[in-house]
Amino acid sequence: METIQGKTPIELNASELQMRLTGYNCIHLDLGTGDGRFIRCMAEQHPCSFFIGVDACRENLRANSHRKLPNALFVIASAQSLPMELNGSISHITINFPWGSLLESLLTGDARLMNSLEYISSSIAALDVHLNGGALAEAGMALEAGADQIYNNMLRSGWQINTPLLMNANTLRNFPSTWAKRLAFGRDPRAIAMNGYFK
Ligand SMILES: C[S@@+](CC[C@H](N)C(=O)[O-])C[C@H]1O[C@@H](n2cnc3c(N)ncnc32)[C@H](O)[C@@H]1O
Questions:
Q1: Which residues contact 68 (CB under 8 A, 6 or more apart)?
Q2: Which atom belonging to ligand 1 lies closest to the Cα atom of 99?
Q3: Residue 116, ligand 1, Cβ within 6 A
Q4: From CA 109, how far away is CA 41, in angstroms rounded?
Q5: How far is CA 127 from the centre of its chain?
Q6: Interatomic CA distance for residues 54 and 89, integer angstroms
Q7: What is the DSSP code (8-state) at residue 162?
Q8: Does residue 55 line the site of ligand 1, with CB under 6 A?
């Protein structure tokens, strides 16, 4: 699979990846990670866990991937066809403030995305999804209606999901991703969080 460090692309095969992951008690994957700030912060705060940031846009990943953290990796890939090297490895998936085709696939219950999430998950995997009102408005939906649709699609795909909850501006301000900060201080700070697991 194609990984990136700063501007340098680096190919990593399945056994090289497994060597990197050995000894970590939780393998966390952030889908649509953007500039990777979330991954960098989490990797710095939780040295016993390994963090993988995935984004389809390599330019986005440059900002934080140049730092050499032993427990972080950045992968260029589309959420709808994640590299098979990741299969069965991930114990925690986050999708923070998706837009574009990632949001569209959540809204339609796209089988390519749902299968990818299932393939990469280990025997039990946790899931956190954070959605924002502006992105859903661009997709033509109100925040609550979009969150409900995604909640139902995740249930249909075998995920056990708790009732979605509203996030307030304070929670957004303290959330360690670039997009959360933009939302917290922007015109439309409405967001919804949902979490659950796959078994
Ligand atoms: C609004 S940004 C959020 C970035 C980050 N999660 C944050 O909280 O700061 C959405 C990100 O999703 C990525 N994205 C959109 N569709 C994608 C797809 N199909 N596969 C992978 N990444 C995707 C975009 O490139 C963008 O970086």
A1: 5
A2: 10
A3: no
A4: 30
A5: 9
A6: 14
A7: P
A8: yes
